[in-house]
Design brief:
By secondary structure, the protein is of the alpha/beta class. The chain has helices at residues 18-29, 43-54, 69-83, 106-127, 144-147, 153-173, 198-208, 217-228; strands at 9-13, 33-38, 59-63, 86-91, 131-142, 178-185, 239-242. The two termini are 27 Å apart.
């Protein structure tokens, strides 16, 4: 499907693997110039750059910690210098860990909330002088923001905060022709993160959905393309559930 995005420029955080990688590749297929970032070098980040080079894509893969103000600012400045104003910002970077609240040190709370919520604040704030007009911001969050999950209070809280931030920013930035929406993802397979309960846990999660299966990263990427495009030109402040009907 052609979303008429050719010639646009997108920034995607957490773009090296899983959902982020699928978003990067989907945007490239649409003719979008892409600046993607990752926090630490990995085989996935190296292979992404190699794949983009092989496709002769207008794309760069940078190292940046989204929770760091300086890194966020440099990411947007570098992206703007390379490809011009940013038409689409996809805040996808995220981390998770599993532990009960009683055992959770403050440093782990800060790490998860810092990446998942503060990271979106830092990158979005840094983007304001570099966004095109109009522009689309898409925040990737999780279905657990609505449903909850044990032994992950930091993760659930951060993802719920993304919904609140999305709704606040859509009202603040709308008059500047900047749309802000969120996607609540369900359990997505092949993301590089496994269920802590293993294959049995993944089967149980699949049975929780109306469709009876896990999602795949490309199904999240397709919704990002929609929200990035003029097909969603009157959609802002929306929180779209892409979870198979949990």
């Amino acid at each position: 499907m052609d979303f008429d995005l050719k010639g646009k420029h997108a920034v995607v955080t957490g773009g090296a693997r899983g959902i982020g990688r699928a978003i990067v590749l989907a945007l490239i297929e649409q003719g979008v110039s892409v600046t993607a970032c990752h926090r630490t070098p990995t085989p996935e980040s190296e292979s992404l750059q190699e794949e983009l080079d092989a496709r002769r894509a207008a794309a760069r893969v940078l190292r940046a910690d989204v929770a760091d103000e300086g890194d966020a600012r440099r990411l947007l400045e570098t992206a703007h210098d390379a490809f011009g104003p940013v038409d689409v910002l996809v805040n996808n970077a995220g981390v998770i860990s599993h532990m009960p609240l009683r055992e959770m040190p403050a440093a782990e709370w800060d790490r998860v909330v810092g990446t998942n919520l503060t990271g979106i604040y830092q990158v979005t704030r840094a983007s304001l002088d570099h966004l095109a007009r109009p522009a689309s911001i898409v925040n990737v969050t999780s279905a657990v923001a609505k449903h909850g999950m044990p032994n992950a209070a930091h993760y659930v809280s951060s993802k719920a905060g993304v919904i609140g931030l999305t709704r606040a920013l859509c009202k603040e930035l709308g008059r500047d022709a900047i749309r802000v929406n969120a996607i609540t993802c369900g359990i997505v397979g092949a993301t590089g993160q496994k269920s802590p309960q293993g294959e049995a846990g993944e089967r149980r999660y699949a049975e929780m959905t109306s469709l009876g299966r896990l999602g795949v990263p490309a199904e999240i990427a397709d919704v990002v393309l929609f929200l990035a495009s003029d097909a969603a030109r009157y959609v802002t402040g929306a929180v779209l559930d892409v979870d198979g009907g949990i």
